[in-house]
Amino acid sequence: MQDFFEIARTDFAAAFAGAWLFPLLLVSILWIFLKEKDKMKKLLLCGVPLLFLFVYWCPFTGILFMKLLGQNVYWRLLWLILLAVVIPYAVCILLKGLSDIQRQVAFVVLMGVLALAGKPVLSKEWFEPSTNVYKLPQNVIEVCELLPSNIHALVSNRLMPYIRQCDPTITLEYGRNSLVYNGITETEKEEQILYLEVQKSEIDLAVLAPLAKKQGCTFLVFSSNRTYIGNWKDYGYKEYASTDEFCIFVDLDYKEGQDTRKWEE
Fold first, then answer.
1. Strand pairing class (246-251; 219-223)
2. In terms of pTM, does the model score above 0.90?
3. In 3D, which of 80, 95, 83 has the Cα closest to residue 35?
């Protein structure tokens, strides 16, 4: 039960952190409830969003949906709240009750509020200029040119969004959804322990290597500025190749051309 609330809280914060959308949603629901006279519209635009919020936070329905959808996509249940319908409809009700000049002023102010309620999509946080015909960062291309096809790999967070765009035969131990693990400090789950160990500037190979082996990670790709406690060969890996920004390590049991992909996701 405690794990459920931790996952729900983390996903909810990731969906609404840094924005005013959730407070705006609650204000919009209240406004529609007070001003809308059509009972069906009131039910759809007030009752349904509140129902989905209840379903999301209720442990019984939440755990059921986690089993059906998977923990990594549980946050998508928040999409069913219909933010893009409820908030604009509440704004329309507000504007409808104003005079022409008041309506124009309110419209400009409300558009400004919505614009400030989040972050620009085309920001440096999510995008960077491409320098090649693949439209991908050059450092990704350099790594993919060194990695064989048909392998299972554990890669740096900076490479996660792009590797499979360059070579879809490569399967990854972690995708972007695993970034929620960054907020965890203590855990007994092996997949989270492995992820958190990878994020350290000094990686303990006694912790990392056995877990990586167990998960079938044939190739490991880390930033070149990482340091390690222990010797790679003592734990079944060796340096395979490197670029200016990344070092690639390979399982000593790997044979060139071997298919090590992992499909049971």
1. antiparallel
2. no
3. 95
